[in-house]
Amino acid sequence: MPAPLDIDQLQTFVAIVDTGSFTRAADKVFKTQSAVSMQMRRLEERVGKTLFIRDGRLNRLSEDGERMLGYARRIIRLNNETIAAFDDQQLEGSIRIGTPDDYADRYMPAIIARFAKTNPNVELYIECEPSGELAARLARGELDVALVTHNPRARSSEVVRTEPLYWVTSTNHTVHENPVVPLAVGRRSCLWRNLACSALDSAGRDYQVLFTSWSATVVASAVLSGLAVSPLPECAVRPGMRILSPADGFPALQPAQIGLMKRPGAPSALVNAICGHIAASLDNITPVGAEERLSASGSSSRRDMRVRPELAVTPAW
C-alpha cells in the first residue's frame, strides 16, 4: 500500500503557491526557508514528479505542480472538515453577509452549502445589494462580511478572485456593428462601466449608454435581446452571448476582481471562518481549457466555468 502524503508538506506547498515565494511561505507556515525547501524535495520524491521549475531567480509551478495544487487543496480542505466534524467546540452564532445579486446567484449556493455542512450551528443572513451600498452598510455596522467588486479607488478589499472582463453581445444580433455602440451597464459608480467607457474613448469608438441598472438580470436581458453590448466577467457569459475582440473594434479590458471586506469588531472566529471558506471556494473555480473556450469570432455555447476535480455570479455593480 502506498505511503500517504504528508499534510504538513501539502500545506507548505499551497503556502508557496499562495504567497508566491519560498521565503514568504516559510513565514506563513512558521518554518525556516531551508525546512520549506526540504519539505518540497521530499514531496517531489514522494510523487516522483518535479513540482517547481527554476526560472531565473524565481520558482514557478510545473505542469505536474499545477495538477498537484488542486489535489493538495482538496486534501487539506477535507482534513479540516473532518477535524471540524468531530470538534465539540464548533462555531456558533450568526453572521451577516452582503453580496451583489450576480455573485449570490453564481457563487453563494455552493459556498453556503459547504460551509453549513461543517458549521451547522452558524446562522447565515445573506443580503444582496450593489458593491458600493454593501461597503456603506459594512461601515455602518449593518453587515459583517461583504463580497464586492474590488475597486481600490472606492474601497479597500482583499482580492480573492481575478478573471477576464469581456465585451459581450448577442449571438443572434449585430448591434455591436452599429456606428454608435449601445451599452447596457451599471450605475455611474460602477467600475466596469467606467473601464468600458474609458476603453471606448481611447479607441475613438462612439457609444451611447441606453440601459443603466445594478441588476445583473436586467443587463443580461438587454444583451441577449440584441439591444446592447455590455462588459461582463468570464463567469457571467451566458448561452446566447458572444465575446467580442479587438478584431471587432472592442479594445481589451482590465481583468475583473472580486474582493472581501470585513467589518472591524465583527466576531473574529466567525468572520475568519467564512472569509477563509469563501476565498478557498472561489480559488477552486477554474475556467475550461483554451481548446474548449468560446472563440472570439463567436460560438453560441456558453463559456462555462468548471470546478477543479476536487469540488463536486455576473456583473457586481
From TrEMBL:
Domain HTH lysR-type as annotated: residue spans: 5-62
InterPro entries named in the record: LTTR, LysR_HTH_N, LysR_subst-bd, WH-like_DNA-bd_sf, WH_DNA-bd_sf
MF term (GO), any: DNA-binding transcription factor activity
Record's keyword terms, sorted: DNA-binding, Transcription, Transcription regulation
Protein family: Belongs to the LysR transcriptional regulatory family.
UniProt name for this protein: LysR family transcriptional regulator
Annotated source species: Hoeflea halophila
Lineage: Bacteria, Pseudomonadati, Pseudomonadota, Alphaproteobacteria, Hyphomicrobiales
